[in-house]
Fold each of these.
Amino acid sequence: MNVLLCGALLIVWVPLSESACYMFPDHKEKQPIGSAKASDCIDPHDKSEHLTGTTWINSMCQTCSCVQCKTLCCDRVLLPRGYSEDCVATFNRKKCRYTVHQKENLSAQCKTQYYVGK
Ligand SMILES: *[C@@H]1O[C@H](CO)[C@@H](O)[C@H](O)[C@H]1NC(C)=O
């Protein structure tokens, strides 16, 4: 049942020209037909397993969806722009975002004018 569902429809529903998204191939193709495995997609970084129709955030701060057994991941990290040259941006892995501090004093936050998508 699951295998049929995976092979039948290949609908690309997200414009892949958006550079921040990546499509990963159907991992089921490498599995024998009738394999007992219940998952449809495997996260390319975490190797966690997901079913068609689900969305998750992985350890690389990407929003991933399992669509027709293909994994689609989009970067959701925004890059700070327009901050002073005395400042430095550091990535906070837990929050999946950058914070900007003064180079001289890391506890002083800097103003960021805007953020851009990667
Ligand atoms: C660093 O910045 C914090 C917050 O602005 C400020 O309270 C502190 O006095 C600064 N420390 C130094 C060494 O400048």
Note: The beta strands are 21-24, 41-42, 49-50, 55-57, 62-67, 70-75, 78-81, 87-92, 97-102, 114-117.
Amino acid sequence: MWVIGDVHGCIYELNQLLELIPADDQLIFVGDYVDRGPDSYQVIDRLIRERHRSIFLMGNHESMMLAYYLRPNSREAMSWTYPGNGGLTTLRSYGMSEANTFEAFPENHREFLMNELHLYYEHAEFIVVHAGVRVDLGTRMDDQHPEDLLWIREDWIRREHEWKGKTIFYGHTPARYVLGFEQQHDIIRGEKSFGLDTGCVYGGSLTAMHARTGELIQIPAQRSYI
Ligand SMILES: [Mn+2]
């Protein structure tokens, strides 16, 4: 099973990456398919075509996007279209604007966003989650708060070495944020975790890591998209 980091509309790099992964291998995506990058519409379309062999997690960006339409008075909803968060770029990729309703999205995309995204995936040997976990809450994933699984950053990165549970694969925090710009293509190697957001949309790479063997496949971004 291959774990794939944040895509953020980087369709060119996603297509390249999937060329290099055997067609029968299972995929698990850590979330953040949309926003900021060139073509969120095409990314969702490609993911839907891979659904027979894939597990999809929800990222904070899908969560904001859904909130924008389904919980419009929430703080998350309002942040989706802030400059920098990329919601407007996503709308543009659909040929839409803020004036459109959720029903304007293709039905299969709406169905994908509402019904196919999980907060985490737990395997016998590892866990996959978008952002990380709160180590204080213990090792049972049921005890974690959804908001942390989608949004946690410093409280996870700083205390990762205290985690006593299974190996965790996550995205959300670009490697350059932790390792520095010079190492933006490297994954974040913790004591019991691997951070796979190598910041494709910022001009880093799109990364897939084989959960069992640790093999890496990386596609450097064509350019920085923001
Ligand atoms: Mn992200």
Note: The chain has a mean pLDDT of 97.
